[in-house]
């Protein structure tokens, strides 16, 4: 393993990509501590941010930038929201669907619209957040000029993060946006470890409880790896055909159908959707709103039930957007292929639809269990979790994908992978 790492660092291009990615991480962490001008960050945290679920979630993904009310306070969430909206619009708007099927050029157009959407969403979120924090008197000089500076700073921070993510994808080791989210989650790891250590030192936690929690989380990580890597391979046979004097086809390939086709998107979307009404209810201040906020707070039975239901629904919904059995069946038939034992066309589409439905059912319930289990564990053992379900899924998924990227670079140059 160490020899393979040394081999990777000896490859000039790969070493440059790794160093560039690390440099972007350093810039991200620096930006997470540069405060927005005109805001009393310490008072803001004590009076507003603590206990607000949506802000806790944003702070969790942003590596604490929101707690410092830094220029990266909005994080990369506007980009995630814009990407989800673009995926939905691709199904609804024929022109977008046409672009998505045009290859690299079409994807460039969709990416450009996603960038515009990110800036617009970030701008309106910054306006809403600025007026919200003004109610708590944390803006030192509440003038139009100060409001404008805060809004522009927050919007520019998100745009800068988006640009950094694209740079990491282009010049680093790929998956730039995912790596930025990964860096933000990992940044909170030392703080969580410190909390557990303090409780153990103070006698509030037994070392055996901590060891048991560590073993259970390790098993959960193994489950996440299995869920991420698990797939059903559908064999496809192509008939031989003669074009001119050459013969094409005759080979056998397969369609990889992942158990968790939607990835971490259902978990993120369900978290945001559930935390938003709870946060609004907290700021209303009415007794009924306070009751709603309590019932929808993380760890509550109603919250957990709705969380599981939303994750399952979004898993099916996002899989339906990403995987189109009719389109795949049409392409197989177009190029002279068939699944052994099935006729091309509609029977193939029905078979693929039946398989993906069964896989998604297993994947959705497994994803919901992984997302909820750390919350149940935290409640049962009365100890803070270093990683929550969402964080675990993101960290493990991004780590596996990054390893594949590095392995691809090694195989291209030395025909030896990163992992044996």
Properties at a glance:
Preprotein translocase SecY subunit, three-stranded antiparallel β-sheet, mainly alpha, 2 domains, two-stranded antiparallel sheet, 5 strands
Q: Gist?
A:
This protein is mainly α. The protein is 71% helix and 5% strand.
Question: Can you describe what's shown?
Answer:
This protein is mainly α. The protein has 2 domains: 1-185, SecY subunit domain (Preprotein translocase SecY subunit), CATH 1.10.3370.10; 188-387, SecY subunit domain (Preprotein translocase SecY subunit, Orthogonal Bundle), CATH 1.10.3370. The chain has 17 helices and 5 strands. It has helices at residues 2-10, 12-31, 41-49, 53-61, 77-92, 94-100, 104-134, 144-171, 176-187, 189-201, 207-229, 265-284, 287-295, 301-322, 325-334, 346-381, 389-414, and strands at 231-238, 241-243, 246-248, 252-258, 337-338. The chain has a 3-stranded antiparallel sheet. Strands 2-3 form a two-stranded antiparallel sheet. Strand 2 (241-243) and strand 3 form a beta hairpin. 33% of the residues are buried. The mean pLDDT is 80.
